[in-house]
Amino acid sequence: MRYAAGFLGVFGMAVGLLLVWGTGWAGHVVLWLAGALLLHDGLLAPLVCGVGLLLPGPTGRGGPVRGVVRGALIVAGALTAVALPPLLRPGAPANPSVLPLDYPRDWLVSVLAVTAGAAALAGVRPLARWWRGAQSRRS
């Protein structure tokens, strides 16, 4: 089964490569992949690691929050990387069906949802720990 899945994956990549090569977009794809690599390795990964180093460790106060903040940064960074092309091209395109949505607003709503979810999760963990401690003190 593993060999069949590997063969199908390699076959799919070969078909995709031939299709991209045949359209003349290979240079654009290579440029996009290089940009994605630079964005991830040059900005996103150092930012997440730097914030993770600044937050207290597992033994210090706020330790469990470290993972929540790092996870939220990774998700927000990935959302930003996906939304970056429409965010960098403001204004109406020549063809209105190309980018029909309000991408800056939708990106902001998505990042705010990730932030709210991370804040809720970071607040629930200490609250649950406090609740368990209060319950154990009662008995």
From TrEMBL:
It comes from the Bacteria. Keywords: Membrane, Transmembrane, Transmembrane helix. It comes from Streptomyces lunalinharesii. The chain crosses the membrane at residues 7-26, 32-55, 67-87, 107-128. This is Uncharacterized protein.
